[in-house]
């Protein structure tokens, strides 16, 4: 029951002002006792997803943000937060230069163990955690980024301020679970469902200039795609995702592209 409520919260399937059904209505809907309903709600409260209000019932305590993926455009989570009338803040947890791992080297098209800038940060919305981000930039490109810059206005914004042109961004979306480190920052249990969004930024020469790995709380953030022209394309099935991972690749490879933010799949 708790899992279904998490999903409803993530999809925004709640009442006015984030209200949930009454405990009695939830019990009837799921065919469970009031004790089971209360246990599920208490679990979600411990995770910071819901809160009870005396005389009013249960409400979603952290807003769920829906970010459209428009064809040929690039938007980021901050725009969804701003549209919701809330404020996002970023806290840099780790900042430093060092050798890249094999996957990061491959993602940035660098020599093995080439030096990169690595930034790990926690983003919150009105004090409630939203995502943990890892960002990697080739050392020469990121030389002008300070820890203060990485926190505000952010690593990518600073790169553009320093004259780095980001012309194209390739985005990969998949599922993940919170590691112990993620869980400690996001204030959730280890193994909590996350939405993993990886982005590789290229300059106008096609050279990778930045790699980012955002791990969003799945209950608080969703990405939306609108498909048009399906009925006239001769398709017999609803639109779906394209599996582009060849044999031997894994979901942990940041160069794997399961969905590109400039491509619609009408299969």
Describe what you observe in this structure.
The chain is an alpha+beta fold and 267 residues long. The chain folds into two domains: 2-60, Orthogonal Bundle (Arc Repressor Mutant, subunit A); 68-224, Chorismate lyase-like (Chorismate lyase, 3-Layer(aba) Sandwich), CATH 3.40.1410. It is 25% helix and 30% strand. It has helices at 2-11, 23-30, 34-46, 77-83, 102-107, 147-161, 180-186; strands at residues 50-53, 57-60, 65-68, 88-99, 115-125, 128-138, 168-177, 193-202, 208-217, 221-224. Strands 4-5-6-9-8-7 form a six-stranded antiparallel sheet. It has a two-stranded antiparallel sheet with strand order 1-2. A two-stranded parallel ribbon has the order 3-10. Strand 5 (115-125) and strand 6 form a beta hairpin. The longest helix is centred in the middle third of the chain and has 15 residues, at 147-161. The chain is globular, with a radius of gyration of 20 Å. The two termini are 33 Å apart.
Query: What is the name of the CATH superfamily of the largest domain?
Result: Chorismate lyase-like
Q: Order the strands across the largest sheet as they lie in space.
A: 4-5-6-9-8-7
Query: Helix share of residues?
Result: 10-25%
The mean pLDDT is: 80
